[in-house]
Amino acid sequence: QVHLVESGGGLVQAGASLELTCELSGRTHSSWGVGWFRQSPGNEREFVAAIRHSGLTTYYATFAKGRFTISRDNAKNTVYLQMGGLTPEDTGVYYCAAQDGDATMKAESYEEWGKGTQVTVSS
């Protein structure tokens, strides 16, 4: 089992940048793929980005391409989500999740989830 903790959320103005961090602990010797998802009030949880354990393969939602960058430092058991050009539509709770052996865009494929970090973008 792996434990995930997100951090880095906050209140920012439109156009700002923000970097979220997901720290993994526990059974970190496994090859965990990590995904970021977000959820805003009244909406379903949606995929944002994912990265395989090697860090060489990444996936992005259409809205994230060109604005967000996912990366990881396996020596630190940490995954990052750098977000730029934020808009009020990016407001929501951002979750990171881990999947043993792969990384996909499907929330149901992920085994472990963090509790989320709130991102609020004001206009």
How is this structure best summarized?
0% of the residues lie in helices and 53% in strands. The protein has no helices and eleven strands. It has strands spanning 2-7, 10-13, 18-26, 32-39, 46-51, 58-60, 68-73, 78-83, 92-100, 112-113, 117-122.
Question: Can you give a write-up of this model?
Answer:
With 123 residues, the chain is an all-beta fold. Helices cover 0% and strands 53% of the residues. Strands 2, 4, 5, 6, 9, 10 and 11 form a seven-stranded mixed sheet that branches. β5 and β6 form a beta hairpin.
Report how far the terminal alpha carbons are from each other.
40 Å
The number of E-state strands comes to: 11
Cα-atom radius of gyration: 13 Å
Give me the secondary-structure category: mainly beta
The low-confidence parts are: none
Helix content: under 10%
What is the averaged pLDDT score? 95
Largest sheet features: 7 strands, mixed
Q: In oligomeric terms, what are we looking at?
A: single chain
Tell me the overall shape: globular
Compute the number of helices.
Answer: 0
Following the backbone from N to C, one meets helices and strands in this order, namely EEEEEEEEEEE
Beta-strand fraction estimate: over 45%
